[in-house]
Design a protein that fits this description.
By secondary structure, the protein is of the alpha/beta class. It is built from 3 helices and 5 strands, in the order E-E-E-H-E-H-E-H. Strand 2 and strand 3 form a beta hairpin.
């Protein structure tokens, strides 16, 4: 399963971003294998960041999005795209990955 973790930085030692739609980066894993880092083009700007992020990650075949807070609009968009989400605190990325895979 491909997982995207909202991240405050580009490295696996970074912490989970507190706000999913405005996360600076997403670290992508295929199960527990690191695949890539995606810079979030919706991190700054007007409204609709969560909807844009949901579509962007869906286009990458992501099945689960992990992050801090998810707004109601992004949750609805995630559900419509048959993806799931998991809210998790500001812990490091590898610890978050272990939690969602266990």
């Amino acid at each position: 399963m491909k997982i995207a973790i909202a991240s405050s930085g580009k490295k696996e030692s970074s912490t989970v971003s507190p706000i999913v739609g405005r996360a600076p980066y997403y670290l992508i894993y295929d199960n527990d294998d690191f695949v890539e880092v995606i810079k979030n083009p919706f991190a700054v700007g007007g409204g609709g960041a969560g909807l844009g992020v949901a579509q962007m990650l869906h286009d990458k075949d992501i099945k689960m999005i992990v992050g801090g807070k998810f707004g109601p609009n992004v949750i609805e968009a995630i559900k419509e795209k048959d993806m799931v989400h998991k809210e998790i605190g500001e812990i490091d990325i590898l610890e978050a990955l272990k939690k969602v895979l266990s």
